[in-house]
Amino acid sequence: MDYPDLLNNLTAVKSGQIIAIDGPAGSGKTTLAGQLQRDLNNVLVIHMDDLYMGWQDAFSARLTASTINNILRPINTSIDFKYDLHDWHKNLFTKSEVIKSNQIFIIEGVSSGQSQFRPYISKLIWLDVSDEIGLTRVLARDGIEIKEQMLSFQLAQREHFASELTENAADYRYEGVPKTLLS
Question: Which SUPFAM superfamilies does the annotation name (predicted)?
Fold first, then answer.
């Protein structure tokens, strides 16, 4: 399925529903989320990177509980909500976003399609990428100085995806961002 077909299928998603885009680091989740935000109406993107309290938090029970209680549950019950954004440079939560629940939500990032989130998700998109290409993309984007953390993160994400079977749960699967999006 190419991008126009994906977009056509996602037009059935209504206000107050959630699309999750999951996959390994460097697979193009943020790129796809941004394009969908431009092409669909009334969409807000929530980046998992803004919720993680550092590298190891992407797979923590704290993150799972916080995301469910502060974001997913309020969306599903049509309640406006607020969530805190983590500043990676200061290593603390520095600001809050107040969000109206009357829009479509895209939650993108590693672990956004985990099993405990799935009851709240209307559509799950899986973007895959090899470790080598993912590492190259992340280092080009974020700098070579994070290489050691990224190598450890890649190991942790492989373990996470193997136990969560996220790819198998996805409604749509792609090897990287759908090609017609990048043309």
Answer: P-loop containing nucleoside triphosphate hydrolases (SSF52540)
Partnered with residue 71 across adjacent β-strands are: none
Q: Is residue 21 part of a domain?
A: yes
Tokens linked to 40: 């669909």
The answer to whether the beta carbons of residues 56 and 110 sit under 8 Å apart is: no
Percent of the chain with pLDDT strictly greater than 90: 75
3-state secondary structure of 155: helix
In which band, very low, low, confident or very high, does the pLDDT at 182 lie, cut at 50, 70 and 90? Answer: low
**Cβ contacts of residue 158 below 8 Å, gap of 6+?**
24, 131
Q: Give residue 147's domain range.
A: 3-177
Task: Write the secondary structure of 79-110 as one string of H (helix), E (strand) and C (coil).
Answer: CCEEEEEEECCCCEEEEEEEECCCCEEEEECC
Q: Is residue 68, in this structure, part of any structural domain at all?
A: yes
- Asked if residue 69 belongs to a domain, the reply is yes
Residue 59 within any structural domain of the chain: yes
CA dihedral for 38, 88, 72, 122, sign (positive or negative): positive
Q: What are phi and psi of 43, to 5 degrees?
A: -120, 135
Phi, psi angles (nearest 5°) of residue 44? -120, 135
User: Residue 113's domain is classified under what CATH number?
Assistant: 3.40.50.300
Q: How many CB atoms sit inside 10 A of residue 29's CB?
A: 30
Tell me the per-residue pLDDT of 96-133, one tens digit each, with 9 for 90 and over.
888 988 899 999 999 999 999 999 999 999 999 999 99
